[in-house]
Design a protein that fits this description.
158 residues; 3 strands; mainly alpha; 3-stranded antiparallel sheet
Length: 158
């Protein structure tokens, strides 16, 4: 007979923290996504625009952009195709690696970022930052840092 070693159930405090985190994460993502809809953008679109706008020469290798946005290369390729059709980005060949491609922020994509970013920041403040006292924000960052570092370290293993 095989013996199973089950992980212990979460305590009431652990369960409450976990479920509150899940609810807050899903509800906040839903609201931020909803607030981007008038601009014709999704959260994935916005995240790509942010990454490209903050990158040198407003470009990133597709493989690096996929890693930065936690998307598969295939999913990112479809996303970039949609964004290309909207005029926000373009693809360019990588001269040093014939197989490599860059995603590049177009002028229209840069203008879109300039237009949308203030509204997105306002939404983040309204639905998250402004609801927490400054000391809670510091505590939240400190508390979640080990989780982020652990998950970033295990990304290759996922």
């Amino acid at each position: 007979m095989e013996t199973e070693t089950a992980a212990p159930w979460l305590t009431d405090t652990e369960q409450c923290a976990w479920r509150t985190y899940l609810d807050a994460s899903r509800l906040l993502t839903y609201q931020l996504e909803k607030d981007l809809q008038p601009f014709g953008l999704t959260m994935n679109d916005y995240e790509i625009l942010v990454n490209l706008s903050e990158s040198e020469d407003r470009r990133m290798r597709m493989s690096d952009l996929a890693a930065a946005t936690l998307q598969s290369k295939s999913r990112l390729s479809h996303q970039i195709t949609r964004m290309e059709n909207a005029g926000l980005v373009r693809r360019e060949n990588c001269e040093s690696d014939r197989r490599g491609l860059y995603a590049v922020l177009t002028d229209q994509g840069g203008d879109t970022m300039k237009q949308v970013a203030p509204h997105h920041v306002e939404s983040v403040r309204k639905h998250f930052i402004g609801l927490l006292p400054p000391e809670a924000l510091t505590e939240l960052s400190t508390s979640l840092t080990p989780v982020v570092e652990h998950l970033r370290g295990s990304r290759g293993k996922l």
